[in-house]
Amino acid sequence: MKIGIFDSGIGGLSVLHEAYHYLPEQNYIFYADTEHVPYGLKTPEQILSYSIGITEFLLEKGVEAIVVACNTATSVAIKELRKRYSIPILGMEPAVKPAVEGTEKKRIMVIATPVTIREDKLKDLLHRVDENHRVDLLPMPRLVEFAERTEFDSDDVIDYIKKQFEPYNMEEYCALVLGCTHFNYFKPAYRQIFGDDTLLIDGNHGTVKHLAEVLGIELSNTPDNVVTFDDTHKMLELAKTEYYYSGKPIADASELERLRILHNRLEFVRKK
Ligand code: DGL
């Protein structure tokens, strides 16, 4: 089956990477809207219009399902996309439910883009699942910039995260929900700051499992096999993926090399 996965940028690669673990037999088209990243600082109208354009592009390429691998685009556009197009379109939302259900008393911090935090979709979700009002929301837009620059462990990254958390007593928190797909790359930085006891919860596994259910396809029974690529040729052949940046196929050797490095980074941070 051919599955389209899109995001404003390289955040969505973390969903694609998880799909390689659980659905390695499928074909993928990965689309990063690098001309318009970051979505988290755009208007809802802009994000909706980009999302419609990308969906039409992917449909023309013959995809049978689409994953909006972007919490921001999901919160703004998912309803409209589902209204307009008949193939399965899956979205992503911050994994608040598993965080609330999997922990007891302490607080939970959701980090996301400003748009995701402002939109009603997240408010509705909290209304449904956060009965004891344990969840706080914190925008972290600069992490998207850092991620796009492939800067994950620098002093600037650590300083920025620490500064955003300064008003909070992190001792009161048991879990950090990564409500933006770009935030997966920084797991070692969160660990360095919050230690090993804070749960880091992302929505990738849940999204891929849901995709399998919707498409009626089996999950791999070896999901924890290591997925790294020694060279870009293997990345393209083994994982059967076409990559696009804002509608242009990625053929440039240095760009492909960047994607290879990012996949290897995602493997490295997967179980952190
Ligand atoms: N990766 C996206 C998300 O999950 C959006 C990042 C951005 O472009 O601001 O929200």
Could you say what the CATH topology of the largest domain is called?
Answer: Rossmann fold
Principal-axes shape call: globular
The parts where pLDDT drops under 50 for at least 5 residues are none
What class would the helix/strand composition place it in? alpha/beta
The largest sheet, given as strand count, sense and whether it forms a barrel, is: 6 strands, mixed
Main attributes?
272 residues, Rossmann fold, 6-stranded mixed β-sheet, 2 domains, binds D-glutamic acid, alpha/beta
Give a short overview.
The protein is 46% helix and 17% strand.
Structure in words:
The chain has 272 residues and is an alpha/beta fold. It has two domains: 2-92 and 205-269, Rossmann fold; 96-202, Rossmann fold, CATH 3.40.50.1860. Helix content is 46%, strand content 17%. It contains twelve helices and ten strands. It has helices at residues 13-22, 44-60, 71-84, 96-101, 114-118, 120-129, 142-148, 155-165, 187-194, 204-215, 232-238, 253-269; strands at 2-7, 27-32, 65-68, 89-90, 107-112, 135-139, 173-178, 199-201, 241-245, 248-249. The strands form two sheets. The chain has a six-stranded mixed sheet, sandwiched between helices. Strands 6-5-7-8 form a four-stranded parallel sheet. The chain starts with a strand and ends with a helix. 43% of the residues are buried. The structure holds D-glutamic acid. The site of D-glutamic acid has 17 residues, from helix 3.
